[in-house]
Specification:
It comes from Bordetella flabilis. The structure is a single chain. The protein is an alpha+beta fold. It has a single domain, classed as 2-Layer Sandwich (60s Ribosomal Protein L30, Chain: A), CATH 3.30.1330. Helices cover 23% and strands 31% of the residues. The strands form two sheets. The chain has a four-stranded mixed sheet. The chain has a two-stranded antiparallel sheet with strand order 1-2. Helix 1 packs parallel to helix 2. The mean pLDDT is 91.
């Protein structure tokens, strides 16, 4: 996969660990369903802690990326869903632990609720 980071001074600078846009050329695009902070074997939320749920959701997403034959550097686009947008900075910090630069494109959406009472969900588009 060839990944080109798109950046222009004519649009606002990224407000976190993401790129304005990512252009990719490759032979396979994988659309990952949303992942919340469920422990894979029990199917229960890993923790009541927001940080714990974010880390587990990213770990679950990473496992699906690996199963698809990719790595986190192959992630072109993320969509994040938070029940509390006040925790946006916490997500940015945790995301930087998982993703190397250059960062994927990203959208963040505030939502009223998520399945199983989760506080965070992530979905991804991967190009292999």
């Amino acid at each position: 996969m060839s990944k080109q980071i798109i950046h222009t001074q004519d649009a606002p600078k990224a407000v976190g660990p993401y790129s304005q846009a990512v252009a990719v050329s490759g032979s396979k695009t994988v659309y990952l369903s949303g992942q919340i902070g469920l422990e894979p074997h029990s199917g229960e939320l890993v923790s009541e802690s927001f940080e714990g749920q974010v880390r587990q959701a990213f770990a679950n997403m990473h496992a699906v990326v690996l199963a698809a034959g990719g790595t986190l550097t192959d992630v072109a686009k993320l969509t994040l869903f938070l029940t509390d947008l006040g925790k946006f900075g916490t997500v940015n910090a945790i995301m930087e632990e998982f993703f190397p630069q250059p960062f994927p494109a990203r959208s963040t959406v505030g939502v009223a609720s998520l399945p199983k009472g989760a506080q965070f969900e992530v979905e991804a588009v991967v190009v292999l």
